[in-house]
């Protein structure tokens, strides 16, 4: 069950992080009216034109016509496009993330050459100090003083921290800026590839001849024209679902071409080193032969060199290169056919897989709900039994405490009675002693006054002897 739940997001969300870096994929999520990010995308039935829900409602209330083909459309006919809605969270995450560490930007900075590619300040300084070039276009001789603060991104991050949500205006500006930076990057790559291809053609023209150079230039011109036409079409009109699919195919073909070109460059660089060493050996051998042969053999060799045919080894090399080119073209066609077959099978199987996954998810959810209910009942019963046991224990303790209090009260009452008895006894004794003392005092007074018979009488005389 856990493994199934872990696989659900991977099967349902078919969007990858690589799509965020493609211009066609991003423009497919762009509103056809406000040119911003379509957060709640809706599409029409007439031409499948996409736009924000709010923009589409306002447009249809005023004009009551499609913004792309101008056919009559009602507000109730608009449908939410779930395919476009699936990648919006990923786009918002990429707008606020660093281009080096792929984490949320901390103190975002940019370079003047690539203003739409922000990075963390620490990541940018580390990259520049180690490589001395731009992290997107590869421009050389860059210093840390060239870094500029990305005010737009920092303001958007501050707004998100204060309000706990993204600002739609700022996020739209960041979205448009990212598309523009990607277009600039593609144009730079095309120019660099054209320059490299022209340099390579000039170097290979000495070996392969003028005919091969013309054949390589013609497809490059055709590619330039096709790219220019595609870019003009992108600016003129919005993109429908069919056009988006075509753009995705073109993007895949371009990535494959780039990989093939890189491989060719690597193979050519290796072959150049080998060809140079071989050419040196050939030159030495030719010099030796020319010295031995004499003046008669120099004339035909000069004619051959002037005509551009080269020696037997050069002819063999040219034939081998042409065979490799033919083999690569055949392999490319085979790969394209296989990729088309795989995409068709995936489209057919996608609906069935989604249904199976949703059914399994529903069953898993029901089982989880039942298990949770049982666990809640068991926990409630256990809690009631524990509360009852605790109440019984509390009642028993209270009864014991009350019995102990009653015993202490009895003891206190007995102690009070004993104390009162002692006080009464002491008072009686004090009274008795008091009476005895009073009697003694009276007796002494009687003796002094003579009233007592036991005391002798006193007599006084005034005669002198």
Outline the structure in words:
With 465 residues, this protein is mainly alpha-helical. It contains twelve helices and six strands. The longest helix is centred in the C-terminal third of the chain and has 138 residues, at 312-449. The N and C termini lie far apart (149 Å).
Q: What is the overall shape?
A: elongated
Poorly predicted regions are 10-17, 296-310
Q: Main β-sheet, in a few words?
A: 3 strands, antiparallel
How big is the Rg? Answer: 52 Å
Tell me the layout of helices and strands.
Elements: H1 2-12, H2 23-28, E1 41-43, E2 50-52, H3 53-62, E3 79-80, H4 82-85, H5 88-95, E4 109-111, E5 114-119, H6 121-131, E6 148-149, H7 151-163, H8 168-208, H9 210-236, H10 241-293, H11 298-307, H12 312-449
Antiparallel strand pairs: 1-2, 1-3, 4-5, 4-6
Concise synopsis of the structure shown:
With 465 residues, the protein is mainly alpha-helical. The chain is 71% helix and 4% strand. It has helices spanning 2-12, 23-28, 53-62, 82-85, 88-95, 121-131, 151-163, 168-208, 210-236, 241-293, 298-307, 312-449, and strands spanning 41-43, 50-52, 79-80, 109-111, 114-119, 148-149.
Give the key terms.
465 residues, 3-stranded antiparallel β-sheet, 12 helices, 71% helix
